[in-house]
Amino acid sequence: MKLEVEEILALMQEVESEDPIDWAMLNIDEYQAAELIVNSLVDQYNRDWSQLSHDSQIRAMMATIAKLVVENFTLNLKLRQ
To answer: How far apart are the first and last CA of the chain?
Structure first.
């Protein structure tokens, strides 16, 4: 399966609507930041992950999601202090 940046951006915006980020406190354009990150992820997937078995893809994605959730949790704790 080949991933497309536009598809991932649209899905990300759906997820974002459920739990929005407060972009007002940041000095960066929301769409440009998302596009930069999604481009990088899609490139990585198409270059590296697409060659993996389905089970290995799921494991890699779950590990990545877990790392990001822990990172986000830690950042939120720091911001509350």
So the answer is: 43
* Alpha helices (H) in 1-81, listed in sequence order: 5-18, 30-47, 54-80
What is residue 23's predicted lDDT score, i.e. its pLDDT? 76
Angle at 13 between CA 2 and CA 30, to 5 degrees: 105
- pTM comes to 0.67
pLDDT band per the 50, 70, 90 thresholds, residue 52? very high
As given in the structure block, the two tokens for residue 55 are: 């089970």
Count of Cβ atoms closer than 10 Å to residue 38 Cβ: 20
Domain segments of the chain as ranges: 1-47, 53-81
